[in-house]
Amino acid sequence: NAGVMQNPRHLVRRRGQEARLRCSPMKGHSHVYWYRQLPEEGLKFMVYLQKENIIDESGMPKERFSAEFPKEGPSILRIQQVVRGDSAAYFCASSGQGESYEQYFGPGTRLTVT
Amino acid sequence: GESVGLHLPTLSVQEGDNSIINCAYSNSASDYFIWYKQESGKGPQFIIDIRSNMDKRQGQRVTVLLNKTVKHLSLQIAATQPGDSAVYFCAENISGAGSYQLTFGKGTKLSVIP
């Protein structure tokens, strides 16, 4: 019973490049959440998605960041024209129908912008 | 804005002793709380949760206490083991708000001395 999967685990991008982070929720889960964690800090909510719908993107920066969760395939967090301040660990969590409070986290993608 | 915070950023305990990790929250509308454990390089791992209609909940070696009067949450770990060394986060949620986003505190680092 695989848990939440994220890839890549580590991603290095130069300033101005694009970063694509992928998240496959736990089997049977249809709710996906993305969080960002800076060093020595707690996780900050970014976006909450269900299949083909963005439910809450109140934590997403207005520019350069986007997220999707298509009908087929993993959820994607996309960061365009990355800057050094985007360097962080990005975590995805998933929850099942009716179990939305209990979120299960993936191992994270550590993005480094050089 | 309102946020979840922690009294102690670091805690060192002797193996076998009990540990108490504290958390203060300021959003009186929050009605669901979770404790997560995060080991170095990994995603947060669910430990225990509690809803606001309860003041105590027990799990295996862990107990969460909720004091709504002073907006305080604590995690007690009995007979602390070296494997308990990690950063512990409390997180809160407001049910019925249309989103299941979690608001995390900054974390407490627990170090167990063998």
Can you characterise this structure?
The complex is a heterodimer of chains A (114) and B (114). Helices cover 0% and strands 49% of the residues of chain A. Chain A contains no helices and eleven strands. In chain A, strands 2, 4, 5, 6, 9, 10 and 11 form a seven-stranded mixed sheet that branches. In chain A, strands 1-3-8-7 form a four-stranded antiparallel sheet, with no helix packed on it. Chain A is globular. The mean pLDDT of chain A is 92. Chain B is mostly beta strands. Chain B has no helices and eleven strands. The model of chain B has no long low-confidence stretch (mean pLDDT 88). The chains are: A mainly beta (114), B mainly beta (114).
Number of helices of chain B: 0
Poorly predicted sequence stretches spanning 5 or more consecutive residues of chain A: none
The value of Rg of chain A in angstroms is: 13 Å
Roughly what percent helix of chain B?
A: under 10%
- The CA-CA distance between the termini of chain B, in Å, is 40 Å
The quaternary structure here is heterodimer
Give the total of beta strands of chain B: 11
Please, what is the average pLDDT of chain B?
88
* Proportion of residues in β-strands of chain B: over 45%
Secondary-structure element series of chain B = EEEEEEEEEEE
Spatial shape of chain B: globular
Which structural class do the helices and strands of chain B define?
mainly beta
Mean pLDDT of chain A: 92
What profile does the largest beta sheet of chain A have? Answer: 7 strands, mixed
H/E order of the elements of chain A?
EEEEEEEEEEE
